[in-house]
Write a structure and sequence with these properties.
The protein has 14 helices and eleven strands. The chain has helices spanning 2-13, 21-31, 51-61, 78-83, 103-110, 148-152, 170-176, 178-186, 189-194, 203-216, 218-226, 237-250, 258-268, 302-309, and strands spanning 40-44, 67-68, 89-92, 115-117, 125-127, 132-137, 154-158, 227-236, 273-279, 282-292, 299-300.
Length: 321
Amino acid sequence: MEEQRTCSMCGCILNENEGTEIDDELIGYVLSSLTKGRKAFVLIGKGGTGKSTLLDLLESIVTKEFVSREPFHTMGAPNSVARYVDKKLNVSRENGVTPMRNEDGFKSLISCEGITGRDVYSKAVSYVPTLKFIFGSNHDLNFAHPDDAVYDRLIVILFTREVEEKDLNLDEKLFAERDVIVSLALDTLKDLVTSGYDFKESEPSRRYIEVKRKELHSAESFLEECCLLKQNAAVSKKDLFRAYEIWMDQNGMKAIGRNDFYDRVRRWNHQISDRKVKREGTRVQGFVGIKLLNGSEFIVDTEDSNEKNDVSQDGQETQDS
């Protein structure tokens, strides 16, 4: 009966639409000495949804001297890395819109790989981190240079419902029953390890990461869906990028920058090359070897081809005879 009542309280904290199995796994894993899960936890939701209550609970269980409070955007920075030494848990509530720019450090910290940090006016320190990271935020947390390896290391928990009737004594009640809460949470670890650390994320949380991955590979998805590889086909760079922006808007995603998009086009297939292209006598910058399925017809600019052929092997232009 006691355990059932405690479970009900925990359900008031983590209130995703898909249930609370991830709740016990999160608490159990964060408080354990296990490190092979290789995950950081991000709690996202507006105020009054219970994020701070969970973070307060975790902090009340871990001895204060073993808790750091470095914000998300500084994670991986040398000074933050130095402050993680001997810590078991990093808890951060104040996370703004500034993107994280130390993705390599983030990966090393979550994967428990050797890392070096240095705080101000201190000597550099090298160690193997074993602490867990959990962040709370009212909005998305972003990376300056995300990749699949970054998203592989994230568990996002969405707090979608405000607590209708706030219990002003909830913190005290949870603290009083923390031994039972920890016991229930640790009971989930055997199954978690057996599953290969397959955390039981809710469907909304899985979709959240899926959308992030689609945005990461948005250029490639657009090219596969809206373009055709064809020898001697041509398209202007401006038209191609504009079509990509429209496609992204229709799919509710944020487009990447123009130059980044052009780089991805070049890498998408080795047959694609930068060339001047023509339409109705007008020469513009474009790509050859690719065309839009529903776009204006361009042709390869033969004058541009001749100009390229007039360049000698040593890179100097030859003189016309």
